Amino acid sequence: MKYKALLQRSDEGFAVSVPGLPGCWSQGSTEQEALENIADAIQEYLAVVDEELKDGDVREVDVAV
Fold first, then answer.
1. Is the Cβ–Cβ distance between 61 and 50 less than 8 Å?
2. Of 34, 40, 50, 64, which is the most exposed, with the fewest CB atoms less than 10 Å away?
3. Which CA distances in Å does 22 have to 11, 37, 55?
4. pLDDT digits (tens, 9 = 90+) for 23-48
5. Which long-range contacts (CB under 8 A, 24 or more apart) does 37-41 make?
6. pLDDT score for 22
7. Interatomic CA distance for residues 21 and 43, integer angstroms
8. The whole model's pTM is what?
9. Residue boundaries of the structural domains of the chain
10. What percent of the chain has pLDDT over 90?
């Protein structure tokens, strides 16, 4: 699965966030490190979402972009 990530230079290197996943962000000293860190953050974010939804009536919706 692919997510769009917004990279921004910061005093520490790079900050990165995922606009499609509110509150999902990370950072790294280099662009590569920031992208690796956001990949981990996305996995953790989605694991929390799955846990919160496990007892609900969840449906998937296809959206053509």
1. no
2. 64
3. 23, 16, 22
4. 999 999 999 999 999 999 999 999 99
5. 38/5
6. 96
7. 11
8. 0.85
9. 6-51
10. 86
- Check pLDDT > 90 for residue 1: no
- Give the contacts of 14 (CB within 8 A, at least 6 positions apart): 7, 8, 27, 28, 29, 30, 31, 33, 34
Q: What is the dihedral of CA 25, 30, 33, 34, to 10 degrees?
A: 10
Alpha carbons within 13 angstroms on the beta-carbon side of residue 3 total: 22
Quickly tell me which residue has 């939804």 as its tokens: 53
Rounded CA-CA distance 58/35 in Å is 30
